[in-house]
Amino acid sequence: MSKTRRILQYYFNHTYSKIVSNNFLDWFINHRNIDERDIVLRELWDNLEVAPQQSTEQSLSQVERRISMRGRQPWRVPFLQKIGRIAAIFLLPLVSASIVYFYTHHTHAATTGSELTECFVPNGKVRMVTLPDSSQVLLNAGTVLIYPSSFGAHTRTVYLNGEACFTVCRNENKPFIVKTTDMDIEVLGTVFDVSSYADSEHALATLKSGRVNVHLKNEPSTSVILEPYEQVSYNRISGEVKVTRQVNVENVFAWKDGHLVIQGMSMNEIAKTIERRYGVTIYLNANKYEKERITAKFIHGETVYEFLSVLQQLIPGLKYKTEENKIYIY
């Protein structure tokens, strides 16, 4: 039994003090082996002795309505409650995000006393959010943004899991801070993009205008100051930090205009990108394509099938089949 499995199984079957619980949550959201963590969570969920009740279907319907919302207004989500086996498969993708919410709610709200709002953007969607200071945030598919109903006296802090483009109103007396799993990005007023999906190999911050200071959490003494058209990249597997001094920001920000640009991506990363953009599920023979690195630009609103056709031209021998919203690449 792996160390990760032992920790998760033991924690969810025992009761601990608040200090121990907070330490566990901090470990949970910063844990690197996401795939193993999700497998153990699914096993724990499947072993719950919960019988569906009359309210189970109603609860599931409420969650479905929230996730399928088409409006621009963010919605408040309480910490995920156990509503029965009948909803387990649907709710599992939100478990990790909900634990992140629980963690930030108890650590942040305790210091500010302000109610937190969680805005979740499902795969296949993009959403604009206006923050309490009038800053604008465009959220890419599969993204969670958490922010207070009103900012504190000294800083403007938000929490991000996913990708977002920030246009921040300048306030020299109150720095704006974006917190992710790996980075804290501090700004006064600027336009920048942050990509920090929990299941991605890399976390990136790219500056279009202004100036930002990026603090790396795994190296507390290290910070990177970015000037316009610069990007910092953190590799979660190797721990490597790379700063690119002249990045093509038009490619980085292309998703804002509905375009899709992939640069040197592995097939695993491309599969996740397809899932987020088109709201489908990809099953990939990863071993067959582990050495492939693809660069391509899609600027005409291609469908998922047109996207896959281009992949077939770029990777000889690639095949796929579809079943409803499932795509098998082999």
CATH architecture heading of the domain at 95-250? Sandwich
Count of runs of 4 or more consecutive helical residues: 9
List the uncertain runs. Answer: 63-99
Structural class of the secondary elements? alpha+beta
Distance between the termini: 31 Å
Calculate the mean pLDDT score and round it: 78
State the total count of DSSP E strands: 18
Portion in helices: 25-40%
Strand percent estimate:
25-35%
Shape: globular
How many strands, which pairing sense, and closed or not: the largest β-sheet? Answer: 13 strands, mixed
CATH topology tier name of the domain at 95-250: Jelly Rolls
CATH class assignment of the domain at 95-250: Mainly Beta
Q: Radius of gyration from the CA trace?
A: 20 Å
The string of secondary-structure elements, in order, is: HHHHHHEEEEEEEEEEEEEHEHEEHEE
